[in-house]
Amino acid sequence: MSRKNHRSAWQRRALYSLYDGFCKLAPMLRPVVDSLGMRRSGRLLAKVEGCVKGSLFECQMCGECLLSSTAMVCPMNCGKRLRNGPCGGVSADGNCEINPEMACVWLDIAAGARQMTEPPAVNQVNPPLDHSKQGAATWLRIIKKSAEPPPEAVADHAAPGARAPGSFELACLSGNFVVTAEISPPDSADPHDLLQRADHLRGLVDALNVTDNAGANCHMSSAAASALLAADGHTPVFQAACRDRNRIALQADLMGAAALGVRNMLCLTGDGVGSGDHPQAKPVFDLDSVSLLGMVKGMRDQGRYASGRKLTAPPALFLGATANPFVPSFEQRVLNLEQKVMAGAQFIQTQFCFDLTLMERFMEEVRARGLEKRCHILVGVGPLPSARTAKWLNSSVPGVNVPPAVIRRLEQAHDHKGEGVRICIETINALKEMAGIRGIHLMGHKNEALLAEIIAATGLADRPTAGDFSSLAVGD
To answer: In terms of DSSP bridges, do strands 264-268 and 236-241 run parallel, antiparallel, or are they unpaired?
Structure first.
């Protein structure tokens, strides 16, 4: 991590006092700005601001400064340029997924907030960055502030019409234990492989999550694969990652998916491109998962694009996001979950759970904040085929934590795959008893037949599924 972000509590407080004092005194410079003119003042201030804030805070001059609410740490130094963080890619030692030699910027922000006399609300939902302001002087707006009229309240456009819930949403609302499963699109233009694998889970799950180039590896479009599944009678969840598309492309894809019968969407930031099969690709990260949630919620509830342009018919989407209870800092994970719920997440799916103690600790904090009453939490589970795979997950997949006791159990077993299935079944049975958990999310790469066996072994095959609610849902 950069040396400048390692600051003591008194340094952070001193810098905040300096920054706060400048903001209070800056309007006195208004006559100077008026005499020089806005354009000339803007250019001059941008150069001075870039030098001062660059040396003190490693400011990236995004034009929409958040320093006062991020403990005097510039979030634009995040590897994914997250304005709502941290992501789920923090390594066990607290380092960044994109730049492994650098500590996570958002963990530094959280640590800094705890050191401040008046801790900033680091879990506030920040809007998407306006890239047209890159390089502009934020000081100019601070100087002008006293002479500007108060901003008008932004009207909250009424929803164009009542949104009929889809079958997956109805299943979540029913109070029954919900089961979803992940399915990866094929490396083929022939849909047969996808539909054949999905059939193993027909009638057993409430929805099928269609991954969006998971691990930054290229596959069939998630939107297209979701539409194929919907046409074949399944209930898909369209995963959308911010890594590969800007806000224009994301809005276009979700509108297209909704038009083709997809009623559920999972908003993701996405893994870094360096972990996939196209490391030479340029990452986008125009939005993060929190701002994507807010944008889609606005499209659905207000009937408008992010630009404000009106939609003829809004997408009737059930919105989800991810949570990772198993990476540092653990207290920040609950705050990040709260951010996502505030932004519009109605269901949450977590990373693989192999550590029930850590999961219970997370859920204690969730229940303390009442978040389990505001969203449907589904915990990620899956079978481990071997101890070798478990060790690889620990070392290579950020956010996955397989405890030593689980690895020893796999090593000592005569049938590694069978033991992995037994561990998975035991985990599911324990999660069914954990307060606040509404279901599970099964993951097993191209192993849908085994996932079907696990569902049957846990007694979840006989419960009502989303298919039983399809007659009550509209268009699912």
So the answer is: parallel
Residue pair 60/83 in contact by the 8 Å Cβ criterion:
no
Beta strands (DSSP E) in 52-133 are none
DSSP 357-423: HHHHHHHHHHHHTTGGGTSEEEEEE-----HHHHHHHHHHSTT----HHHHHHHHH-SSHHHHHHHH
Token digits for 133?
């302001």
Please give the Cα distance from 256 to 330 (Å, whole number): 37
Quick one: average pLDDT of 270-283?
Answer: 93
Nearest to 258 by CA among 226, 305, 294, 210: 226
Q: What count of other Cβ atoms lies within 10 Å of the Cβ of residue 48?
A: 11
Indicate left, alpha or beta for 376 from its phi (over 0: left) and psi (-120 to 50: alpha): beta
| Its pTM surpasses 0.85 | yes
- Give the class (CATH, top level) of 167-469: alpha beta
Q: What residue spans in the chain does CATH classification 3.20.20.220 cover?
A: 167-469
Angle between helices 222-231 and 247-259 (to 10 degrees): 10
